[in-house]
Automatic annotation (TrEMBL):
NCBIfam families the UniProt entry points to: PRK07480.1
InterPro entries in the record: Aminotrans_3, Aminotrans_3_PPA_site, PyrdxlP-dep_Trfase, PyrdxlP-dep_Trfase_major, PyrdxlP-dep_Trfase_small
Similarity comment text for this entry: Belongs to the class-III pyridoxal-phosphate-dependent aminotransferase family.
Keywords, alphabetical: Aminotransferase, Pyridoxal phosphate, Transferase
The protein, known as: Putrescine aminotransferase
Pfam family, one: Aminotran_3
PANTHER family linked to this entry: AMINOTRANSFERASE (PTHR43094), AMINOTRANSFERASE CLASS-III (PTHR43094:SF1)
MF (Gene Ontology): pyridoxal phosphate binding; transaminase activity
Coiled coil regions, renumbered to chain: none
Length: 456
């Protein structure tokens, strides 16, 4: 059997890692100097590293381990499925039980008439599917000129060429020739950083109207779709003003363009409902899902589409697919994960019990002298670090440095919190207990204190 039992000291593993392993979104030289933190096991909301430290995971891995670590039921469902049918494809009129059952379950859970699923192995792949889906939809409806897809600056929709183009991360566009043609971006609804003198309400309306302006600039007859996360995650957990989504909904309906809700982070209980679309009150034509679908135990994602989109696309052959679309083992694990989330009342608990508790505690971080605002929806939240609360100022000269310092202090205090520029973000496993929430807030506060001293 391939040997995974470790007998080597941490420093040696770190050197090997730096020598041979290219990491996503990691500075190579820094990795060589500092070495990666090596995670060896996990249970519930807690990680253990190669030095034996117990670390509270405030990020659910990468926004995905919604059910928490160490669930034997998911291991058993994978083992069973691997023995029975480890792989078969879903191309050319073949199917299998796990894909059929998971599609049925997702159609039950999804809002409105979203009742068909096209499977992928990740959010990036699913968003690439979406680009082709919406353009093919309009081609099949006799409007092939509708190719433009509108997205938002600072959005994250994945790292492939297509999904990276949909995203609005300028650092990503700067590498490798992104974006592909016919993708357009408007500004994000980040009132704290970009709202100036406007009220939150007016700013939300103004940012939504940028969508209308962009549609008119491109010509409504040329626009295929608008894509957005109900609550932006990787951009820094930007909770939009309440006025934003109702106005966006009006605009997409008025101009008859498709709405794609990227639920890769917001889906499967993260915002206190099964989907973020339900939390912010929108009716998408397509939802992108991944991450929490299997709680990250195996890679699986997909596009859940409306009966209208499915029937138009189904009128012909969609020349698109991945070897692992609907992978039986990943689908079986996802199905079991959805069963547990449902039967254990985990989504309801986020909405009614632990979510409100976390909100109260998390918002108290705004009393810290270095924190401007603390915003949270369900179990995804962020704090804005500021040298001057009244002016909503940023640490301009070296943006990101204070956030980085904070993240390092959190790490040292055995808490995983991420930073995006000068915003610190959390997205813990949905099973986090009240005691663990208390520990998270106490460690975050301590880390902020220490970072503030270091920043001076
Ligand atoms: N969409 C959103 C909103 C995401 O947050 C992510 C990943 O963080 C993706 C898409 C890409 O998903 P994946 O990393 O599974 O390709």
């Amino acid at each position: 059997m391939a040997q995974l039992t470790n007998t080597r000291p941490t420093a040696e593993l770190q050197a090997l890692d730096a020598a041979h392993h290219m990491h996503p979104f990691t500075h190579g030289a820094e990795l060589g100097q500092k070495g990666a933190r090596i995670i060896t096991s996990a249970d519930g909301c807690w990680l253990t590293d190669s030095e034996g430290n117990r670390i509270l995971d405030g990020m659910a891995g990468l926004w995905c381990v919604n059910i928490g670590y160490g669930r034997q039921e998911l291991v058993d469902s994978a083992t069973r499925q691997m023995s029975e049918l480890p792989f078969y494809n879903t191309f050319f009129q073949t199917s299998h039980l796990p894909a059929i059952q998971l599609a049925e379950r997702l159609a039950q859970l999804a809002p409105g008439d979203l009742d068909h699923v096209f499977f992928a192995s990740s959010g990036s792949e699913a968003n690439d599917t979406n680009i082709r889906l919406v353009r093919t939809y309009w081609e099949m409806k006799g409007e092939p000129q509708r190719r433009a897809i509108i997205s938002r600056w600072n959005a994250y929709h994945g790292s492939s060429v297509g999904s990276g183009s949909l995203g609005g991360m300028k650092g990503m566009h700067a590498q490798g020739g992104l974006p592909i043609p016919d993708i357009h971006h408007i500004d994000q609804p980040n009132w704290w950083s970009e709202g100036g003198e406007m009220s939150e309400h007016d700013f939300g309306i103004a940012r939504a109207r940028q969508l209308e302006e962009k549609i008119l600039e491109l010509g409504p007859e040329n626009v295929a779709a608008f894509i957005a996360e109900p609550v932006q995650g990787a951009g820094g957990v930007i909770v939009p003003p309440e006025s934003y989504w109702p106005e966006v909904s009006r605009i997409v309906k008025e101009y008859g363009i498709l709405l794609i809700a990227d639920e890769v982070i917001c889906g499967f209980g993260r915002t206190g409902n099964w989907f973020g679309s339900q939390t912010v009150g929108i009716e998408p034509d397509i939802m992108t899902v991944a991450k929490g679908l299997s709680s990250g135990y195996l890679p699986i994602g997909g596009s859940i589409v409306s009966s209208d989109v499915a029937s138009v696309i189904g009128g012909g052959e969609f020349n698109h697919g991945y070897t692992y679309s609907g992978h039986p083992v990943a689908a079986a694990v996802a199905l079991e994960n959805l069963r547990l989330l449902d039967e254990e009342g985990i989504v309801t608990r986020v909405r009614e019990e632990t979510g409100p508790y976390l909100k109260e505690k998390f918002e108290s971080l705004a009393e810290h002298p270095m924190v401007g605002e603390a915003k949270i929806v369900g179990m995804m939240g962020s704090i804005a670090l500021t040298p001057d609360k009244a002016r909503r100022a940023a640490f301009k000269a070296d943006a990101g440095t204070v956030g980085y310092l904070c993240r390092e202090r959190c790490f040292a205090n055995n808490l995983v919190m991420r930073h995006v520029g000068d915003r610190m973000i959390i997205s813990p496993p949905l099973v986090i207990s009240k005691e663990e929430i208390d520990a998270l807030i106490a460690r975050a506060w301590k880390s902020l204190d220490e970072a503030m001293v270091e920043a001076k």
